[in-house]
Amino acid sequence: xxxxxxxxxxxxxxxxxxxxxxxxxxxxxxxxxxxxxxxxxxxxxxxxxxxxxxxxxxxxxxxxxxxxxxxxxxxxxxxxxxxxxxxxxxxxxxxxxxxxxxxxxxxxxxxxxxxxxxxxxxxxxxxxxxxxxxxxxxxxxxxxxxxxxxxxxxxxxxxxxxxxxxxxxxxxxxxxxxxxxxxxxxxxxxxxxxxxxxxxxxxxxxxxxxxxxxxxxxxxxxxxxxxxxxxxxxxxxxxxxxxxxxxxxxxxxxxxxxxxxxxxxxxxxxxxxxxxxxxxxxxxxxxxxxxxxxxxxxxxxxxxxx
Amino acid sequence: xxxxxxxxxxxxxxxxxxxxxxxxxxxxxxxxxxxxxxxxxxxxxxxxxxxxxxxxxxxxxxxxxxxxxxxxxxxxxxxxxxxxxxxxxxxxxxxxxxxxxxxxxxxxxxxxxxxxxxxxxxxxxxxxxxxxxxxxxxxxxxxxxxxxxxxxxxxxxxxxxxxxxxxxxxxxxxxxxxxxxxxxxxxxxxxxxxxxxxxxxxxxxxxxxxxxxxxxxxxxxxxxxxxxxxxxxxxxxxxxxxxxxxxxxxxxxxxxxxxxxxxxxxxxxxxxxxxxxxxxxxxxxxxxxxxxxxxxxxxxxxxxxxxxxxxxxxxxxxxxxxxxxxxxxxxxxxxxxxxxxxxxxxxxxxxxxxxxxxxxxxxxxxxxxxxxxxxxxxxxxx
Lengths: 306, 382
Known about the structure:
Structural class of chain A: alpha/beta
Strand order of the largest sheet of chain A: 5-6-7-3-8-9
Strand order of the largest sheet of chain B: 2-1-3-4
Structural class of chain B: mainly alpha
Number of helices of chain A: 10
Shape of chain B: elongated
Oligomer: heterodimer
Helix content of chain B: 55-70%
Number of helices of chain B: 15
């Protein structure tokens, strides 16, 4: 069901490459909401790249559709060309040009009104904290600055929706924090972010939704709260319903005696620990994780990777 | 946007020393070497004309023959590696048309085929004059009272056929720079394929083209803008090479400068030459997928076309079939256009070459655009 602030609706989308035997993306549906960050996760070859290519119009769906609902007067192609920006994993700019010249080149393509160019570039430089390296040759920048320039070029298009491919890979923790702060700020400004990364703690920190894909199929679509903590325990035998009633949000992970409690805050977590105290004789293992996404990822994809 | 694209491409090339070397340094070096080689060739040829006469020493006909060879430009030297052996009584053999193969000629084994041919012809001409001398002596046309020098002058004068040939208009192509400068200038212009391929490949590899696919510009327009930007780079390259080739090199080599006369013809020719080179470079840049491929395909094809266009070996020395291929080469058409400009001759061939070049440009550009757009359609995230 589409919410009021749905920006993009992906409806039963499928895609098959011309010479492929199977669908690379198989009947996937989900929505992107204004001011949200959605992570698309899955092991290599799961179909993430194909799905993103479909979302940003680089490929046309074999079946189903992608609807940019916020722009009813624009065609899909127009909406993408005007409202969508990409941040590829590689440094998609010219090393030999200065930061300023790179921005000037990309702005000259995205904005026809030349009077606006200077203000756009100034804003983006400030937003991405690139003012002090504006005249420096891009190729000589540090990895962190290069990542920020990669994002700055996307922002210079003044997009509403931004697709980011591992925007923090290969940089130091401080630069990463700075980029995550920037992305959170963009969310607060109402930009819709679509994010792929193998750094799952970043996903947990930044994203509101996670779409898990395996072999082209959507295997899980989770909405994340601000802080999700999980407690996983196994028992020597399957617990009775009465024993499980002491827990809130408990779920059985598989058919054996493995259970997980997902807590959205410390209070819920302490309640879970108290309930766990009643089962001391039954407990085989207990593990705690502050990264629910990572745990979920491992559960969903362990067999695929192995 | 076009201006920013131009600025971008110009900066990319100016920061790339390899591209600058390929676009400016390499053609300038070729211009200097080939102009020097052409201007020195006549002097070198004279130095080759040495011969050692063996047999019939101190005989009369040997003395006559030596005199005639000297008049052909030979110097008689016992150290020469070119040896000509005369048998005794060769004068009688001449007149009776007997004694086949009685004169033995051994030319220096290190001589190039062209030089051997030239020496052979000059020796044959001297032998023909010797035969004429003996004939005139026999018929009494030579005054025995005259000195040998006077007799030889009379023989050479009798054998002269130059008066039968109508005087020619002065050949502007006699300037060695006119042969080499346009050719190597065009050769350099076609090497724009390397920096162009480099930017195409980089843009594809680092995701810039993927990024640009979501910008409000069609890939056809982006491709066209890129071609225009490189065209301006090509104009700058031609201006620099033209200045060096037409003025600096002839000046320093003591040869007449190559002046361009009619500015409107100059503009037409320069735009046509640059358009052909850029369209060809766009085609190669669209096909190749790595810089190594660009080096092999772009560089290799350029060198082959240059060789087929008579830049390395004059067309006159090529087999007919190869020479025919040269007339279908865009580099040859381009070099001919520049030669017409530098020699101030704009006959119908000028316009014929313009038409051919534009035909080539259109075919290359459309093919390149088709290939580029096809590749862009298949370009996806990652």
